[in-house]
Amino acid sequence: MGDAKQMADYILSLAGPPPGQGGMAASGVLTLDRHQPNVPGRYILQASYTDQGAGDGLPRLTTKEVVVLRSPRLRADLFSAGNKVMAYHIEAKDNPMGDTDADVLVASGGGWSSYGDIDLTGIRRINTTLALAPGITSGGTIKVLTGNPNTGKVIGSATIEQGLTNLGLNELPIELTEAQNGVQPLFFRYQADDDSADAVLAAVISYEFVRGQPSK
């Protein structure tokens, strides 16, 4: 969070409005509508307060806080840490999934990826978009863990099978087994159906965090 705050402070120092201009009331509702559709990004919010100062010539004091809101959809290839995974760029001319460039996470069996600390409050499902190709990917299971990629608590799991005609984009919903609260280190662990050492489960494109009500 420290790096994100430094980045936010720098951006706001360049482009932010002068104090008292272009701001908002101390309370209210902010509509987050300035992002491009289907393009993951971040909103950086800054709040500051300056007191009235004190007697005897003491200066006024200002307190500032920065909050960074992440997109609910994460590009899988932009992992912050991982093992036995690889970010891979596919040129449009070589992309069997479409006519544009693509960036994917090549998920090998026994590997894992992490995207830092994520606020799971209210999240009930993680929609996974991935690509399969007979003879290249094996399919398998993706597990979601908190705390640690090897010994952490498993809070969700889903399996996708690789068929002979199962080619191209697939959607894999991962339902969380119980309600989660607060910011936690989150990990995705990959188990390929093929037991070979170099087996590739799939090419993962994105993870989307979906809010919902606990199942009864």
Features:
single chain; about 220 residues; mainly beta; nine-stranded antiparallel sheet; 1 helix; 11 strands
| Low-pLDDT windows of residues | none
Give the overall form.
elongated
Mean pLDDT: 82
Residues in helices, as a percent range: under 10%
Radius of gyration: 22 Å
Quaternary organization? single chain
| Total beta strand runs | 11
Major sheet attributes: 9 strands, antiparallel
Could you tell me the strand content as a percent range?
over 45%
Question: Could you give the distance between the termini?
Answer: 35 Å
Q: Which sequence of SSEs, written as H and E, runs from N to C?
A: HEEEEEEEEEEE
Which structural class fits the helix and strand makeup?
A: mainly beta
Give the count of helical stretches: 1
Give the gist of this structure.
The protein is mainly β and 216 residues long. The chain has one helix at residues 2-15, and strands at residues 42-50, 62-70, 73-75, 81-90, 102-119, 123-132, 139-146, 153-161, 168-175, 183-192, 200-211.
